[in-house]
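Sanity check. The docking grid for 9D3 depends on where the pocket ends up, so I'm generating a full predicted complex first rather than guessing from homology. Inputs follow.
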Amino acid sequence: MRIDVVSIFPDLIADAVRYGIVHRAVENDLVNIAVHNLRDYCHDRHCQVDDTPYGGGPGMVMKPEPFFEAVRSLRADSTDPGHVILLSPQGQVLNQQRARELTQHGRLILLCARYEGIDERVREALADQELSIGDYVLSGAEFAALVVMDAVIRLLAGALGNEDSTAQESHTEGLLEYPQYTRPAVYEGMAVPDLLVRGHHEEIRRWRRQQALKRTLQRRPDLLSSAELTDEDWEILGEL
Ligand code: 9D3
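Predicted complex below; grid placement will be based on this.
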């Protein structure tokens, strides 16, 4: 996959992708990330990327031309026109299903806005999709773009370098995690559950499933409706 990011803070994006799984995916050529400075696509002498809003009111609005120019220019160097995503608080909210869908594109073009907003024509005529990362206010779209990239890139085949944990993940997808422990068996009077220390595999498997279901029921009951539940799960939920 190729990901182009357009932002007025390109270094923020470029620095953040140099860590962990995302970095490894880049090194292994699973993803090619290219970051572009929006200011390279302005065409006035002052390189203005924002302007006062028509109709008045507070704040500045990001101008349309630099975004259109940037996408036009990026499209010239590949046959894949890419799927253009505008990161915006007004977008569909990112979730695991949407992240999975995004892995199907050969190329993503992420547009980051700052300031109060962006000229509506970018949204209408340039973006194929508008994505938010949740209901809280950020100062700009860069961190949202990084969140989208992280969620998508880790899904790209092999990016984890650990097929076992991907398989495990699909099994528990949609549920919260069960409690985990490592040594020491007792730390400052707090003991690891006996059953885990004893190591009876079938007992442990059922306990973990029960814990995951219990936790999800208590903390995020909304997740249960979309989780894939087995007959055993329903039996466990009945006991809870
Ligand atoms: C006066 C500003 N706003 C009213 C509350 C609108 C606004 C515009 C732009 C608020 C924040 C931003 C900057 N945020 C993003 O660009 C953004 C975002 C977010 O703030 N929350 C969750 N997801 C996203 S994706 C992009």
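Relevant for the grid: The pocket of 9D3 is lined by residues 87-89, 113, 116-117, 132-134, 136-138, 140-141, 144 (CB under 6 Å).
Also worth noting: The radius of gyration is 23 Å.
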